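Thread amino acids onto this structure.
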């Protein structure tokens, strides 16, 4: 009937249990009405005043805690890929790499380390909202334009507070 909350309440009632909201220093700064009401990157509905807006940067389901921080705390620094597909023009030791994690997104400067059919991507620019299951496409830039070099599927993302 479209009421997903009732399904979750049936199978995971602890998702509605009240708990603490912590800042990135580990200090309790508020309380929540259940982790079901929060998603990573959420800004609205946290109901805690701060000079800079708070964002949900981590959900600790085992401890029933929500960790909030500033927007910078959401920046993804590293991406791990699987199931690579590299095109013939891909040169392993080039420094002129960029990645794109959304079809309509921007090119992000990155270092790419290949490991068999997997890769470790170290982002040199800030980006948020990268999740496992998304595609990551490699590009190079030249005087002729952007060239697709290959890509893979995101299996893990890492930042200071969150690893998905």
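Threaded sequence (164 positions):
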């Amino acid at each position: 009937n479209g009421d997903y909350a009732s399904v979750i309440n049936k199978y995971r009632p602890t998702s509605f249990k009240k708990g603490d909201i912590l800042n990135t220093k580990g200090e309790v700064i508020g309380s929540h009405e259940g982790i079901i009401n929060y998603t990573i990157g959420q800004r609205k509905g946290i109901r805690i005043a701060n000079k800079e807006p708070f964002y949900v940067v981590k959900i600790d389901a085992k401890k029933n805690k929500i960790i909030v921080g500033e927007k910078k705390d959401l920046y993804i620094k590293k991406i791990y890929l699987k199931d690579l597909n590299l095109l013939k023009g891909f040169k392993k030791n080039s420094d002129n790499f960029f990645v794109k994690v959304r079809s309509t997104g921007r090119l992000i400067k990155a270092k790419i380390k290949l490991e068999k059919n997997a890769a470790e991507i170290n982002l040199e620019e800030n980006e948020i909202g990268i999740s496992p299951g998304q595609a990551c496409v490699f590009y190079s830039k030249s005087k002729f334009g952007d060239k697709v070099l290959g890509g893979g599927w995101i299996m893990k993302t890492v930042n200071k507070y969150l690893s998905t």
